[in-house]
Amino acid sequence: MTQWVKDPGVLIPRIRFATLPTPVESLPRLSGVLQGPRLLVKRDDLTGLAMGGNKTRKLEYVLAEVQANGARTLITVGAAQSNHCRQTAAMAARFGLDCILVLSGEPEAPASGNFLLDELFGAEIVWTTRAERSAALQHTFAAAWEAGRRPYLIPLGASNAIG
After folding, report:
1. According to the CATH classification, is domain 71-158 in 1.10.10.10?
2. pLDDT tens for residues 44-64?
3. Stated pTM of the model
4. What letters, b where the CB count within 10 A reaches 16 and e where it falls short, cover 51-79?
């Protein structure tokens, strides 16, 4: 269900899929070791999407825009072990979208960590160097567009006006 969030006079669509709010937990032993004040940690690893993280909140807004635009293929960029890419791939799998990740680095054999999860979520992987990442992203988007895959480009870290 699409919900609307009111920001200073602007309505921003959002599709809620995160498990929120996440808890705040006390760290009494660490506070004791540091002989300091009470320490708290916000447990964003419990947002419920592929081991959670802060990107889940951003992706709720991105997904609303993706659906509003009728996109079918998500394309984003990051490093081989990117948390943002892992969460984007998980969101795509959960909502029946294709996902192409343009990753800088070298393919790992065997796959591990976030890269392994990217593959398990069914993401297509395009490998590039960090220096050539922008060109690879443009080429990947153009190829998906020409193939009729209705791509939607999510910037690095989903960091834009939507996310």
Report:
1. no
2. 999 989 988 889 999 999 999
3. 0.88
4. ebbbbbbbbbbbbbbbeeeebbbbbbbbb
DSSP state of 46: G
Distance CA 129, CA 135 (A): 10
Annotation marks residue 134 as catalytic:
no
Between the two ends of the chain, the Cα-to-Cα distance in Å is: 18
Give the active site residue among 26, 31, 82, 134: 82
Phi and psi, residue 94, nearest 5°: -65, -35
Q: Distance of CA 57 to CAs 11, 67, 74, 78, 96, Å? A: 16, 16, 17, 18, 19
Read off the pLDDT of residues 99-134 as tens digits, 9 standing for 90 and up: 999 999 988 889 999 999 999 999 999 999 999 999
Give the C-alpha separation, 50 to 69, whole Å.
25
Q: CA-CA distance, 57 to 18, in Å (whole number)?
A: 7
Task: Give the start-end residues of each E strand in 58-135.
Answer: 73-79, 98-104, 124-128
